[in-house]
């Protein structure tokens, strides 16, 4: 099956949303953002148009057997240079959120991208340069001051060396404390929960200084085994550990591209008996770096994933990307490593 490249800025950036029907599922969300409807792809031969400079050529696997394609492409995923780049979500008051992140959480404003014609602004904040650290990308859509976070998004994780100081700072600045510092259930680690001005929760974890302070993104899923398989095969992540919590009726799985003490990880949570969540319209996506967006798209297909944007360059930026959704509808964007570094340096 061949696909035509239909570059659309809205499929990578986050255009304005209508002010109604905010709690629709992701499939509807994608449709109203101009992204083509997702399709399921099995283990079958396919091809993509590859853009190399000013040329286009077909990257085809039609002359290979499905088994050979699966083996070669999925093996390539294991050796691809991947890293979690940033997490994207929408906010209603950009200045207020930036101030909270800088003054309370100690982040730095890294860069800002204004898109007046598309009526939105992106702001990047974090604890170090984007080419080496996981950061947040805040999106403000002109005229929209609130969003529905839904029930599926969990929280972000933040490693801090003095949790009490951060909690008191948040309290002094008028922030919301969800959970006071205390040992985690069944363990010795000290954690606390706070909430930012838009209602996004942050789990503060007290531990020695970390090379990646923004250490975790937690999402809820309806079938943990299915999700683990997807992130291993399609995204090339490693399952680092799982934890059963039968008394509280949930299980968590930690996945990532290296030890969680040094890298940002994805935490998937399965609550017993809950198969579906409302993902709202506030949280957007995780971006992951790759050496080849075209092979990445092939791997996603072979793993049974849903492509929401065929691989190719983003208009204006010219950075090549591809995107997909996981089995629960959480969006993932893969970005060309070389072109990403060119963009941020």
From TrEMBL:
Pathway: Secondary metabolite metabolism; methylglyoxal degradation; (R)-lactate from methylglyoxal: step 1/2. One of its GO terms (biological process) is methylglyoxal catabolic process to D-lactate via S-lactoyl-glutathione. GO terms for molecular function: lactoylglutathione lyase activity; metal ion binding. It is an enzyme of class 4 (lyase). Catalyzes the conversion of hemimercaptal, formed from methylglyoxal and glutathione, to S-lactoylglutathione. It catalyses: (R)-S-lactoylglutathione = methylglyoxal + glutathione. InterPro entries: Glyas_Bleomycin-R_OHBP_Dase, Glyas_Fos-R_dOase_dom, Glyoxalase_1, Glyoxalase_1_CS, VOC_core. Zn(2+) binds at residues 137, 155, 203. It comes from Clitoria ternatea. It comes from the Eukaryota. Residues 83-207, 213-337 form the VOC domain. The active site is at 203 (proton donor/acceptor). Binds 1 zinc ion per subunit. In the homodimer, two zinc ions are bound between subunits. This is Lactoylglutathione lyase. Keywords: Lyase, Metal-binding, Repeat, Zinc. Pfam families: Glyoxalase. One of its GO terms (cellular component) is cytoplasm. Its cofactor is Zn(2+). Gene3D superfamilies: 2,3-Dihydroxybiphenyl 1,2-Dioxygenase, domain 1 (3.10.180.10). Its EC number is 4.4.1.5. Belongs to the glyoxalase I family.
